Amino acid sequence: MTTQPHTILDRIGNTSLIALRTIRPANGARILLKLESENPTGSMKDRMALAMIEAAEADGRLKPGGSVVEYTGGSTGVSLSLVCAVKGYPLDIVTSDAFAQEKRDHMALLGATLHIVPSDSGRMTEKLTKDMIEEARIIAEAKGSFWTDQMRNRDQIVAYYRMADEIWHQTNGRVDGFVQSVGTAASLRGIAEGLRRHRETVRIVAGEPAESPVLSGGPSGAHKIDGIGAGYVVPLWHDGIADAIERVSTEEATAMAFRLAREEGLFAGTSTGANVIAALRLAERLGPDATIVTVMCDTGMKYLKTFGARLAASRTPA
To answer: How does pLDDT run across 225-239, given as a tens digit for each residue?
Structure first.
């Protein structure tokens, strides 16, 4: 019997779960952070990228010698770039100057061909999302590529069932609430469904940008929280996923990302900051005995230039 050689893809998943020490709710409830920065590209999106490609390989949508295309704010693109590099598939990525330059550089270094869609002053908007989707569709049609189409692709949800099982076992079945901000909605949906298989009463909270609160019935707007808030109700979302929706502003999310670095030694992006803000709010509601799990979606190394600019601006006298 021969065994397949190990690759970097075998290091996806089985990430650590740690308790926040200093950034805690006043009532003493416990907040646990799933360190998805431990994945090979430093992002939880490694899980879904591998799941989408493997499912397409299994059913013949992606054949040997085929190619792949996707639209992305960056993390999904970096993860797909890794998977496609290992598996040998050419990859076209549609992205934008609205997202971190570090992510675009990372994708290019992993061999992806980038197609940049200009943004409105570096902001994430509904129009930008839809322009990127249309560009990806055109490329897929012209090249005959497999289009992963992350906003509609259900294959990725299985990856988050596995993540839910990890959380359940790591907490010994003590999870009172789970919080995750919404991009495609796949991670929140998969983890929510997975945790509820173990315990139906787990409280699920979705986070979204306060500047574009479409899931909670507000208007579409522009924000600067990478990876979440598409500006419209995404196809994988449905009202039964979450028990509540928390609105978190770009300013709040950024400030919390900085606090996590300074007070916990956890260097993460703004979507993680939004997650922790929403988790603190849920913890206050659930009481001192509650255990809330949320996600460190990626590493702050993906945002060094962006964070450096914001830090410099905050120190500049008015």
So the answer is: 988 999 999 999 999
